[in-house]
Design brief:
Length: about 400
């Protein structure tokens, strides 16, 4: 004998079990007695009206109406349908409700490319594999994940290519790939993430980035750039006064025409930097590395009397031609093979400096201190004050 599980229309509680009679009227009468109502219409779990007793199936869930239209219960039993139960679209289209967004796809898409993935197991045709997943009121499979990051995964299963919009984080897609077990795309995502991660300790700062920092910094505040990387940066013609570049790297940078007055470049790496025409009043370049730098026509001469300090700097092969360097401290500085033609070095401190093979022709060395300087192979032609210079230089080795 066939039986039915009956509920009041719009409810999934207080159900009763009745036997299926010979006619539809017999079923309505039995339902009226069991539920203590006047049963007039029978509905299937999907809202279909039953008008023939032969349409009823054994152990089917039926909703009993007193004449009103079908009302889906709050917790419709179709919401509790599991993937292990057969469905009409078993070989066709499937609708997924991922985090509130609907995706329409095929069972073949979800199961073919990654046969061992969670999605493949969820929608496998092998009904021996049970996977409890509820459906929403429209029959879409509910998956509590982010739809934003799920969409690239679904597209990958469709056509085999990983395509991620610029607005979507690859890290989020990677988490979804790991969750669903889409292993073939994990390496691609990890490589993509690695490329996107900036190497903060090594990536040079660009002109635009630095200008934005300058704009955001009040004029009276000190901009601290200690230890930063400016290799190859174009900072030409900028007002960079009072900035702390201690230990910074500016290799091959262009600061031509910039105002670098009162900056601190102590122990900074300025190899091959272009400083042509820069203003360097009272700059601190103690032990800085300036080998191969272009410093032609630079101005170090502060009318207020403060002096630039370049003590102990490495200035091999530096071009300083035509620079104003009166009073500059170049004590024990290495200037080997450098070009100092026509420089104004009045009152400069060059004691113990290595000036081997330097070109000092045309320089003004009035009152300069050259005690203990190494002038081996230096060019001293066309000196403005040769007599005074000759009296000042006490040791030439």
């Amino acid at each position: 004998m066939m039986r039915l599980n009956i509920f009041l229309n719009g409810s999934d509680k207080g159900g009763q079990v009745i036997a299926v009679g010979q006619t539809l009227s017999d079923v309505l009468e039995a339902a009226s007695q069991k539920l203590n109502v006047t049963a007039k219409i029978l509905y299937t779990a999907k809202g279909g009206q039953v008008d023939d007793v032969n349409l009823l199936r054994d152990d089917e869930v039926i909703y009993v109406s007193q004449g009103e239209d079908f009302i889906p219960p709050a917790n419709n039993t179709k919401d509790q349908t599991y993937l292990s139960q057969p469905r009409e679209n078993d070989v066709g289209w499937i609708t997924l409700n991922v985090g509130g967004k609907l995706f329409a796809t095929t069972r073949n898409t979800l199961t073919t490319k990654e046969s061992d993935s969670m999605l493949s197991r969820m929608f496998s045709r092998d009904r021996a594999q049970l996977w409890n997943s509820t459906l929403d009121k429209n029959g879409a499979f509910l998956i509590d994940r982010s739809p934003v990051y799920f969409e690239p995964i679904l597209n990958y299963l469709r056509h085999g290519r990983l395509v991620i919009d610029k607005s979507i984080s690859p890290q989020g897609v990677l988490e979804e790939a790991k969750f669903f077990g889409i292993t073939s795309v994990i390496d691609q995502l990890e490589s993509l993430i690695e490329k996107d991660i900036p190497a903060k300790d090594h990536t040079p700062i660009t002109r635009r980035e630095f200008v934005l920092s300058l704009i955001a910094t009040p004029a009276k505040s000190e901009l601290r750039c200690q230890g930063m990387n400016f290799d190859g940066a174009d900072l030409s013609k900028l007002d960079l006064r009072n900035i702390n570049f201690k230990y910074a790297s500016l290799r091959n940078a262009n600061v031509a025409g910039a105002n670098l007055s009162y900056c601190n470049f102590e122990r900074a790496d300025l190899a091959n930097v272009n400083m042509e025409g820069a203003t360097l009043l009272t700059v601190k370049l103690v032990c800085a590395h300036l080998e191969g730098a272009n410093m032609t026509n630079c101005n170090f001469d502060d009318p207020a009397g403060s002096r630039t300090n370049m003590e102990g700097a490495n200035m091999k092969n530096v071009n300083l031609e035509g620079s104003h360097m009166a009073g500059v401290n170049l004590r024990v500085t290495t200037l080997r093979n450098s070009n100092l033609q026509n420089c104004d070095l009045r009152g400069a401190v060059l004691a113990g400096a290595d000036l081997e093979n330097c070109d000092l022709s045309g320089c003004d060395l009035q009152e300069a201190n050259l005690r203990g300087a190494n002038l081996k192979g230096a060019t001293l032609e066309l000196m403005l004050t040769p007599l005074h210079m000759s009296q000042t230089v006490t040791t030439i080795t």
